[in-house]
């Protein structure tokens, strides 16, 4: 099937198509959910979903196919919806084509090659690296989890000076990052007894990590700088490519880990990605995932780009033949689809503007500009993210809220992630009801 977006050439085309659509969830079915303001068992939500499905698709006894279905293969709203995990929205049409090629009972009977070379070749072309610079994993989360054990073995235990520093002050190889970021690496480091130094990120500065602040830390000793670009949950770049390159060159014994989980939401002409610098700087690590911009979280694929020596170390902890044919082909198709990211960025910008327009209407709330498919918000009138989280959960929507940890209090904040069209409409209706 040809892409339903074929021929969409401008933001206006998508906007026109969007406004031509009627809300997927009729107000009546939304209202039928509202009286149930308690935490409800999952069976209830399944029941609501089935009712909603029957209502929408068997109207007047005939199946109704809406334009949305062609664009996003969107299913009727199914509550509860999870807007707390940052799932992407749509996958490339090329991935659908791959799945449609695997319909026979023999189509998956063969192993792939041991190291998934066909996919490595595609990554080499897209990212300007060599096969020995790539480590494939089941998502980028598992790679981030391997980072701290790697540092302990390779950066602390391998040097008597660093062992001594670690034992005396826990400063064998500290983690340096921003206050409000994705916490997988800092948490793991704290749990393993490493020092974590979090630097201020302020909305006035677009939540940027300031180079002089990072340098002040690195002058005390080498460490790993975790740069989430663009950052979860702020939706903004923590650093520009030339700033990271400047630091990587000046501090060769430190490691600069750039988590580009959401980078494809930003066009390359607006922000230069950093992967092609990997062959030039041994101390650079770039992690990527197919979970968000490629809409393939359910496929579980990600990769790390770094020096051949570091990649060998990561590889030594896993077996080959660990990715199946479908994973390999879907990932390669995603990376080579020429239309997908252009369409996704347009669609995301429109949906983000729509949700933002709702958020801007409410008193006592600040919503920060985002380059991604999620929006960071803050109550300025004493209400907490946890309060909104609970209220939305009663209406079948899960969002991300922030628990206080020592030295940090982000309880006034919450993060909303864009879903597919009918989820966004439902979200805005519920926000209007609670905050409008
Ligand atoms: C910044 C960032 N990096 C990495 C991940 C891990 O994603 P995955 O394991 O699906 O690749 C997430 C997930 O939320 C994330 O927000």
Task: Tell me what you see in this structure.
The protein is α/β, with parallel strands linked by helices. The chain folds into two domains: about 10-90 and about 340-435, Alpha-Beta Complex (Aspartate Aminotransferase, domain 1), CATH 3.90.1150.10; about 95-335, 3-Layer(aba) Sandwich (Aspartate Aminotransferase, domain 2), CATH 3.40.640.10. The protein is built from 16 helices and 13 strands. A hairpin with a 6-residue loop joins strand 9 and strand 10. Helix 6 packs parallel to helix 13, helix 7 (about 140-155) crosses helix 9 and helix 14 runs parallel beside helix 16. The longest helix is centred in the last third of the chain and has 22 residues, at about 340-360. Pyridoxal-5'-phosphate binds near residues 139, 182, 232, 261 and 302.
Shape: globular
Say how many strands there are.
13
Mean of pLDDT = 87
SSE string: HHHHEHHEHHEHEHEHEEEHHHEEHEEEH
Helix content: 40-55%
The parts where pLDDT drops under 50 for at least 5 residues are: 1-9, 20-40, 47-70
Strand content: 5-15%
Tell me about the biggest sheet? 7 strands, mixed
Number of helical stretches of at least 4 residues: 16
CATH superfamily of the largest domain: Type I PLP-dependent aspartate aminotransferase-like (Major domain)
The set of bound ligands, ions and cofactors reads:
pyridoxal-5'-phosphate
CATH level 3 topology of the largest domain: Aspartate Aminotransferase, domain 2
Distance between the termini: 42 Å
Q: Which second-level CATH architecture of the largest domain applies? A: 3-Layer(aba) Sandwich
